[in-house]
Amino acid sequence: MRKVVCEKEDIDPGDMKSDSLGIIPIVVCRTKDGEFYAFANRCLHQGAPLSEGALRGDNKRTTVHGNYEYIKEGEILRCPWHGLEYDVKNGGCMLADPEQKLRNFEVTIEENNVVVYK
Ligand code: FES
C-alpha cells in the first residue's frame, strides 16, 4: 500500500503531520536534519494520538555532577497523555524500554511528495 501524505514543504523540520494508511492512523515526523519517519499514530502505553504530542529534545545527564546537556533536538516524540518519549530515529521507547518500538513505515520523497509505504 502506498500513500502520498503531502508535499515535502508541508512539514517543517521539527514538526509532524497525521494521516492514515488504509485504516491505520499514522504520524509522519520530520527531524531538524530534514529526515522523515512514519509511525502508527498510537502510543504503546494507552493509545494516545502521538501527533498531538510534541517533537522535542531531551536533557541528558553528563558525567559532571549536576550538569545536563540538551540532546536530540526535534528527534524525540513525546506522548501528549503521560509523556512517554520515543526516539524517532528508531521508534524505540526511550525510558521505559528501548526494545519496545512503535510500528514504523517506510517513507520516501518522490517528486517532492512525502510517500509512506506499508
Ligand atoms: S498513552 Fe502515551 S504515555 Fe500514556
UniProtKB/TrEMBL annotation:
Coiled coil: none annotated. Residues 3-116 form the Rieske domain. The keyword Iron applies. CDD domains: Rieske (cd03467). The keyword Cell cycle does not apply. Keywords: 2Fe-2S, Iron, Iron-sulfur, Metal-binding. InterPro entries: Rieske_2Fe-2S, Rieske_2Fe-2S_sf. PROSITE patterns: RIESKE (PS51296). This is Rieske (2Fe-2S) protein. It comes from Lentibacillus kimchii.
